[in-house]
């Protein structure tokens, strides 16, 4: 049976005090007996002495009466003697107690079985013979000492009280003091140490007892050591010893956590299975030492190719898993994949051996290609084998459809960039018509890619990819330069119309856009008021502080700002309030629907709202006469659309402009 430290200390102290109390009581009774013996002895010797004196003094029975004074003195001096009397067989001859008439039985004094204290308690008197000679006749009288019972019990009860006071109460106080002392210095600290050892709760503060303090300090040290060892073991269990990368255990933990989060937040992530090409040959031909060293280098290279929030684990000899969570598009992901492959595609010098090793990468996506680690591993592995089958040093997606899409995007990306070098882009211009006068007041520059192999490619096909991969900055800059060039050319020919240029959010927010744009206008002596920058609502979604600053700067410079495709995307009236917008372009979808009840209300409302906010309102995608009539009726400012003209190349636009202005 176990007990708490507090209980143990309490029992220990209590047992100690019980023993002490037993000893004290034994001592008390022994003392009491000794005292009783001493009292009895004193009374006895007083008695013997008195009897001896009386024997000498008394010569005849008549002398007894003369002894009164002596007896009174002895009775009053004797502490425990109540009275003294002398009697013969029949009657009391003399007594210090005037009321004493009878003798008292005194035989108990000789009863041997009783303790001295009991004798004192029980006997009332003791007596002694007084012998004397009247002539030759021996006479025996009895001398009796009557004991003062009250005095005796008062004496013993006083002694008892003192004993209780000294030996009874004092230990109780000592007991309480000891209890608090032991509890405070031993029981509580030990209990705190126990709790610390058991729960590893907060480290107890230093104790005042040296031994306990040593134990506490040792425990703290032990726990710290254990904590470090635990951490080391934890890390070891999750680290690949050769490469220092995460191992399969760590991958399992990471993937489970990520899958749970991604499923909750409905997000996808990419799971890459990386396998080195020809690694087995290197191992077999140059030995495992070289292979190991190569693996170490490759591992650190893969880590270097990744961003801090990507995850990499070595899951087999030359197999790695990379998890990429944050990417905006497949193209951004493929850029990461290509970076890994490019980093690994170098010649490594290992123990003087030049070694080249490529990699094949299979890519699967959570949740599309697998909802758990096993299926993601399996499917990315299948994709990796497909990459190897197709000639190594490649990457391959698990689904063929995605594979095709990515391959198409990659070749589009390549061709799109080449097209700029080969001067395959052209700007077409769609007239903007003033509704009241019916004349051309401007032109929207729209890019066209005229490929020698594929013919005219619409901007819808490549603009979004150019925005995704950042090529829009280069392409957009070409558009601006070409539009300004054309504007200057027309101005010199007397065609002084404003030009609207589509500028993507990425381009607008790119480095130095404002400075370069202003320089372009200044260099060509272009009136900024003749240039209209078309932006979409998408711009307002991000970096709104920065956007606002750029738009205000452009506006202050004199450039007009048009909000394109109004009403289709992320429309919020607060944009119209916060940003300096000159023109509102109603999206074609609203214009198409102008003849329905709701549709007409929308168009009408947008026109009124725009004009109330001092904006010009331009209808897009106008294809029919009725639409123009309706727009005219509701007071819309301008329109553009196939009804008047499609976007034309610069020459055709010029012809049309000159035709309609005459
Ligand atoms: N960042 C840049 N974006 C550009 C540039 N050039 C074009 N674009 C954007 O590409 C999208 C598609 O443009 P496009 O194929 O040229 O189509 C434009 C018009 O041809 C078309 N349109 C005009 N009128 C009609 C019509 O009556 N019917 C009909 N079906 N289509 C018509 O609309 C497009 C103009 O759209 P918008 O820009 O919204 O005014 C398009 O989003 C362009 O913005 C560029 O140089 N840079």
Short description:
It contains 21 helices and 21 strands. It has 662 residues and is an alpha/beta fold. Helix 10 links the parallel strand 10 and strand 11.
Account of the protein in words:
The strands form four sheets. Strands 12-13-15-16-17-18-19-20 form an eight-stranded mixed β-barrel, surrounded by four helices. A five-stranded mixed beta sheet has the order 6-7-5-10-11, with helices on both faces. A four-stranded antiparallel beta sheet has the order 2-1-4-3, with helices on one face. Helix 1 (5-57) crosses helix 3 (116-122) and helix 1 (5-57) packs antiparallel against helix 4. The model has no long low-confidence stretch (mean pLDDT 90). A hairpin with a 4-residue loop joins strand 6 (311-314) and strand 7 (319-324). It contains 21 helices and 21 strands. The two termini are 116 Å apart. With 662 residues, it is α/β, with parallel strands linked by helices. The protein folds into four domains: 5-169, Beta-Lactamase; 208-237; 239-398, Alpha-Beta Plaits, CATH 3.30.70.270; 413-661, EAL domain (TIM Barrel, Alpha-Beta Barrel), CATH 3.20.20. Ligand LFPHGCPZ is lined by residues 430, 444, 446-447, 458-460, 463, 476, 479, 502, 504, 564-565, 620-623, 640-642, 647.
């Amino acid at each position: 049976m176990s007990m708490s430290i507090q209980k143990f200390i309490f029992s220990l102290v209590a047992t100690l005090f019980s023993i002490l109390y037993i000893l004290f009581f034994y001592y008390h009774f022994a003392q009491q007996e000794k005292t009783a013996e001493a009292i009895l002895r004193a009374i006895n010797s007083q008695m013997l002495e008195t009897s001896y004196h009386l024997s000498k003094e008394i010569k005849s029975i008549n002398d007894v009466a003369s002894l009164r004074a002596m007896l009174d003195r002895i009775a009053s001096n004797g502490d425990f003697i109540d009275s003294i009397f002398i009697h013969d067989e029949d009657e009391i001859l003399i007594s210090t107690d005037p009321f004493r008439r009878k003798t008292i039985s005194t035989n108990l004094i000789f009863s041997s079985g009783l303790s001295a204290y009991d004798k004192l308690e029980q006997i009332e008197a003791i007596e002694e013979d007084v012998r004397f000679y009247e002539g030759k006749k021996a006479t025996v009288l009895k001398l009796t000492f009557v004991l003062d019972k009250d005095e005796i019990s008062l004496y013993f009860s006083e002694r008892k009280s003192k004993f209780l006071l000294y030996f009874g109460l004092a230990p109780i106080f000592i007991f309480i003091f000891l209890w608090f002392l032991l509890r405070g210095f031993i029981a509580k600290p030990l209990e705190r140490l126990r709790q610390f050892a058991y729960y590893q709760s907060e480290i107890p503060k230093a104790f005042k007892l040296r031994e306990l303090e040593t134990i506490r300090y040792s425990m703290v040290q032990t726990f710290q050591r254990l904590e470090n060892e635990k951490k080391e073991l934890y890390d070891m269990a999750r680290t690949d010893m050769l490469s220092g990368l995460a191992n399969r255990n760590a991958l399992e933990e990471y993937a489970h956590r990520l899958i749970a989060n991604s499923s909750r937040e409905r997000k996808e992530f990419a799971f890459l299975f990386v396998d080195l090409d020809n690694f087995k040959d290197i191992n077999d031909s140059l030995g495992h030492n070289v292979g190991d060293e190569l693996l170490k280098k490759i591992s650190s290279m893969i880590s270097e190719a990744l961003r801090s929030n990507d995850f990499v684990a070595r899951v087999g000899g030359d197999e790695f898993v990379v998890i990429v969570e944050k990417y905006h598009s497949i193209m951004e992901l493929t850029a990461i994949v290509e970076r890994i492959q490019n980093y690994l595609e170098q010649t490594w010098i290992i123990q003087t051996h030049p070694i080249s090793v490529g990699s094949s990468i299979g890519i699967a996506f959570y949740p599309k290609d697998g909802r758990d680690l096993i299926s993601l591993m399996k499917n990315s592995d299948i994709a990796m084998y497909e990459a190897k089958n197709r000639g190594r040093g490649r990457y391959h997606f698990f689904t063929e459809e995605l594979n095709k899409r990515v391959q198409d995007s990659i070749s589009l990306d390549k061709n799109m960039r080449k097209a700029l070098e080969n001067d395959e882009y052209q700007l077409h211009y769609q007239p903007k018509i003033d509704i009241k006068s019916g004349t051309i007041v401007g032109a929207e520059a729209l890019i066209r890619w005229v490929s020698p192999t594929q013919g005219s490619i619409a901007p819808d096909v490549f603009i979004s990819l150019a925005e995704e991969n950042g090529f829009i900055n280069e392409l957009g800059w070409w558009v601006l330069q070409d539009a300004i060039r054309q504007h200057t050319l027309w101005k010199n020919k007397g065609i002084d119309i404003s030009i609207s240029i589509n500028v993507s959010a990425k381009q607008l927010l790119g480095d130095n856009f404002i400075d370069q744009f202003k320089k372009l206008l200044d260099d060509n002596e272009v009136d900024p008021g003749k240039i209209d920058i078309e932006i979409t609502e998408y711009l307002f979604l991000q970096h709104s502080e920065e956007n606002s600053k750029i738009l205000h700067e452009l506006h202050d410079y004199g450039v007009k700002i048009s909000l394109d495709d109004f009403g289709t995307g992320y429309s919020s009236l607060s944009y119209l309030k916060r940003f300096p917008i000159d023109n509102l372009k109603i999206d074609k979808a609203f214009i198409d629907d102008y003849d329905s009840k709701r549709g007409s209300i929308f168009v009408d409302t947008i026109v009124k709202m725009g004009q109330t906010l001092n904006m010009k309102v331009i209808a897009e995608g106008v294809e029919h006469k009725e639409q123009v009539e309706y727009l005219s009726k509701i007071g819309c400012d301008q329109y553009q659309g196939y009804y008047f003209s499609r976007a034309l190349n610069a020459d055709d636009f010029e012809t049309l402009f000159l035709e309609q202005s005459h």
